[in-house]
């Protein structure tokens, strides 16, 4: 894996990454006062593996789409071709706040400001040996952040370089979990199959919890979402003049939603049989604001050309044959 061979592959990776760098992934995960660096994705830097990171490396920054086939892919579990384990497991006190900070692939700020941010957990025997199988209904939702009362999406805060803060329920039992953080960008979701998912899993060990998961609405990834979910196919997305509108989050209800922090209740606009979701105000969750932004980097990275897309898939297969994320550990 050294010298000439590595260089060839590095060049190939560089060629592939040109178009992916405008997306992004977690660069800082914070829990119990400790900040952990997240790994770069394999296609940005396969060598970047912080030894103390609880965040599992994903293969590419390219989004998973809300097409029927992508939604059925195992990539929906923990992101695109993720590593099967991370080097560390973060300690988290139940009831405390964890936070997720994102960067783009070129070390700029998160480039999208339309869409919700959703967090799930999955209980494991051992977080670093845990990979839920497709179809296994063990994921429960702990948080969803949509629009604030002005119609500003949670992702707008990410684009202001702020972190997304999530309270870990105090009602869950102690033990190991995966935290599945999911950023859903909707800028193209007026078209069916064009919502974009940025997903990754972080290993945590919860202490100080009380209670049980009885009564939690458990779902499977892949499996929980469908192409026509009202929160993923939103034909009227741009018909609201930038004002707040009833948005139906995809997936199940939030664990303990009825005792959670104040939320703006809205009716689901869809005919879906799902329980109508509530829209927690983005402001309800306190956000930590790192350094203010001088010039926001607003990269458009939404429209993928078919031709380059196909070429890159071929190249990625090649690269992946060489650097299989799972075999790195
Ligand atoms: C999962 O993601 C990887 C990396 O982007 C991709 O090569 C693979 O085709 C995806 N799998 C499916 C079933 O879509
Ligand atoms: C965004 O926040 C990160 C983490 O605090 C910081 O390292 C980076 O310099 C910030 N970027 C900008 C453009 O402010
Ligand atoms: Cu993007």
TrEMBL record:
Pfam families: AA9. It is found in: Secreted. Residues 1-22 form the signal peptide. Keywords: Carbohydrate metabolism, Cellulose degradation, Disulfide bond, Polysaccharide degradation, Secreted, Signal. It is an enzyme of class 1 (oxidoreductase). GO terms for biological process: cellulose catabolic process. InterPro entries: AA9, AA9_LPMO. Transmembrane segments: none annotated. The keyword Secreted applies. Its EC number is 1.14.99.56. Residues 269-296 have a biased composition (Low complexity). GO terms for molecular function: cellulase activity; cellulose binding. Residues 23-238 form the Auxiliary Activity family 9 catalytic domain. GO terms for cellular component: extracellular region. Residues 308-318 have a biased composition (Polar residues). It comes from the Eukaryota. Residues 269-329 are annotated as: Disordered. It catalyses: [(1->4)-beta-D-glucosyl]n+m + reduced acceptor + O2 = 4-dehydro-beta-D-glucosyl-[(1->4)-beta-D-glucosyl]n-1 + [(1->4)-beta-D-glucosyl]m + acceptor + H2O. Has a modular structure: an endo-beta-1,4-glucanase catalytic module at the N-terminus, a linker rich in serines and threonines, and a C-terminal carbohydrate-binding module (CBM). Lytic polysaccharide monooxygenase (LMPO) that depolymerizes crystalline and amorphous polysaccharides via the oxidation of scissile alpha- or beta-(1-4)-glycosidic bonds, yielding C1 and/or C4 oxidation products. Catalysis by LPMOs requires the reduction of the active-site copper from Cu(II) to Cu(I) by a reducing agent and H(2)O(2) or O(2) as a cosubstrate. This is AA9 family lytic polysaccharide monooxygenase. It comes from Exidia glandulosa HHB12029.
């Amino acid at each position: 894996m050294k010298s000439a061979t590595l260089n060839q592959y590095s060049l190939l990776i560089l060629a592939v990454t040109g178009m992916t760098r405008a997306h992004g992934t977690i660069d800082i995960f914070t829990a119990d006062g400790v900040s952990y660096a997240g790994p770069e994705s394999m296609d940005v830097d396969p060598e970047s593996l912080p030894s103390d990171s609880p965040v599992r490396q994903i293969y590419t920054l390219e989004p998973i789409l809300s097409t029927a086939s992508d939604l059925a892919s195992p990539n929906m579990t923990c992101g695109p071709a993720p590593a099967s384990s991370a080097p560390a497991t973060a300690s988290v006190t139940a009831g405390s706040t964890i936070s997720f900070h994102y960067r783009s692939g070129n070390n700029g700020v998160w480039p999208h400001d339309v869409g919700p941010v959703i967090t799930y957990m999955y209980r494991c025997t051992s977080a670093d040996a845990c990979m839920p199988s497709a179809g296994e209904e063990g994921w429960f939702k702990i948080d969803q952040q949509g629009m604030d009362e002005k119609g500003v999406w949670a992702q707008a805060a990410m684009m202001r370089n702020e972190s997304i803060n999530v309270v870990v329920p105090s009602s869950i039992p102690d033990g190991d979990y995966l935290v599945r953080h999911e950023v859903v960008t909707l800028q193209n979701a007026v078209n069916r199959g064009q919502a974009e998912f940025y997903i990754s899993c972080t290993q945590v060990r919860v202490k100080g919890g009380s209670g049980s998961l009885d009564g939690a609405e458990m779902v499977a990834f892949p499996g929980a979402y469908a192409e026509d979910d009202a929160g993923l196919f939103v034909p009227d997305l741009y018909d609201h003049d930038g004002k707040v509108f009833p948005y139906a989050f995809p997936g199940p209800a939030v664990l303990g939603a009825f005792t959670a922090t104040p939320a703006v209740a809205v009716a689901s606009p869809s005919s879906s049989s799902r329980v109508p979701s509530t829209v927690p105000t983005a402001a309800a969750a306190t956000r930590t604001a790192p350094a203010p932004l001088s010039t926001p980097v607003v990269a458009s990275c939404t429209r993928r050309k078919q031709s380059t897309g196909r070429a890159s898939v071929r190249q990625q297969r090649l690269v992946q044959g060489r650097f299989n994320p799972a075999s790195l550990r």
